[in-house]
Amino acid sequence: MDLLLTTGTSASPSAATGGQTGPVTLVALYPGPALRLDSALAIAEANAEAEDMMDSDPRWLPDLRGWLTASSVAPGLRSVPVESLRGIMIVEWAGVPLPDGGFLLLGRDDTLERQLRHTLTESRRRYKDLVEVSSDFAWETGPDGTFVFVSHKGALGYPADALIGRDPRSLALEEAEDLPMPFDCRRPVDQTELWLKSADGTPACIVASALPLFGQQGDWIGARGVCRDVTDQVLRSNELARIRNRERLLGHIVHTLRDRLDAAEALAVAATETARALSADGCRIYRAEEGSGEGDRVALSLVAEFGAELPEVGTALLDRIANGEGLVADRLGDIQLIGERTEYRQAVNGALLVWRAGDSEPWDDDDRQLMSGVADHIGIAHAHLAYQERLRRLSERDGLTGLFNRRTFFERLEESISRPDSGPSALLYVDLDNFKAVNDLHGHQQGDTVLKAIGTLLTTGVRPGDLPGRLGGDEFVLWLGRTDEAKARVVAERLLKGMRELAHLSASPEKPLGLSIGIAVHIPGRGETVRELTDRADAAMYDAKKSGKGHYALAPAYRAVPEVSSSDVPAAEPAP
Fold first, then answer.
1. Where is the PAC domain (predicted)?
2. Model pTM greater than 0.90?
């Protein structure tokens, strides 16, 4: 393209320029793209930058011509996109009318500025969108400390308009009114936690970050920041902490129950640990009595206790705990207590009771849940204790009659006669008469019925220190502690009389059931062993049988056999 360009500062006008040295010089020297159009809007002059733009993308020039044609007065400014080697650039053109009807066009690269403005606009829009969708709320306070701006969603259940002009301290909880707050901070605040009042009066936990605002003279003119309502997170965290603490306490009590081999000892320790875990003044553990619960009422007996003395607990309260549903809370004088029944496989087997002084903190949900957890495991411990007792009975008792078996009887007898202060006692050796005939004629089932009846007869009327036992077959024993010869005879007579009431179990009238009883009185301090005592009673029993059965006989008093020394033994006669 042949265009006349002037690049110098010559004062003599050329024919091509028509004496207009000003515009020509301006087009040539202008630092950006420049054009001069004639009255027909054809290019009269263009500098190098404008020529480069036309070479790269000639589409922008018709846009400018259309703009100039449509302008009836000074056209002003016009921005057009131009495709260049650097990409799309935005050129802002200023149109100046010339006396000959043409136009002087001066361009300026507006790409960077537009990008910056666009970026700023997008940044503001992005910030606005983020604030609007965020759970955080932005705020600003003025020199008087009141809110002058709150993001449009408002905060703490208040609409934004209700907070504007309000003193933030009016939102503080009563106990925190005098504490520093981020809304009037004099130095930056980062992630500080505070509790405020929501619109409905409930406490709300807020995490705030803020910056102070200062005027040109350094005077404080307010603060600006953001707050985030973290009440739900804090409550969940606190609840999780309470659950973990409850699990830790419950785990400790459970380990206490499991680590003790003896279930009764474990219950005693569990009472102590339960009271401590619940910050209680005391704890009682009750157990359902054997055979209880078959009717409408479960009878309870105390098996473990810890802590301060508790007034007498009536059966009415224990019945409410054992026979009711869920946890029972009550007051006993100035004492507040809670109780819950214990179960195993949906069967009530006891109760748990804890108490505090009346001026202590009331029971809360954590206490109640921990109480329920402990009660569940106490129920298992009760079942374990019952199982241990059943095993102990199986190992100590005769399976048919319930009497002590041979091993246990002699172990207990050994312990009894080893006490020097036990006083005179008696061992009754009892053997059934004509029992074999019952088995032979009526079978072993009838024989078992007889043996069970004898077991009942021996245990009827016995005292806590007495030991009834079955040695095997139809042989029985009865140890009567602190019993002299006269009392032993009375017991023997009672047994013989009771046996006559079992005559209907006999094999036949010709072979009536009976008892042969041998009595051996034991005097402590004479050195008699269990074996010697048993042999005396056994021998007396055979004496009773020899007298015609159905009788008792008294063994002679024990006489220690003197030890024979070697000097008392006569010398052997020499062999013939």
1. 190-242
2. no
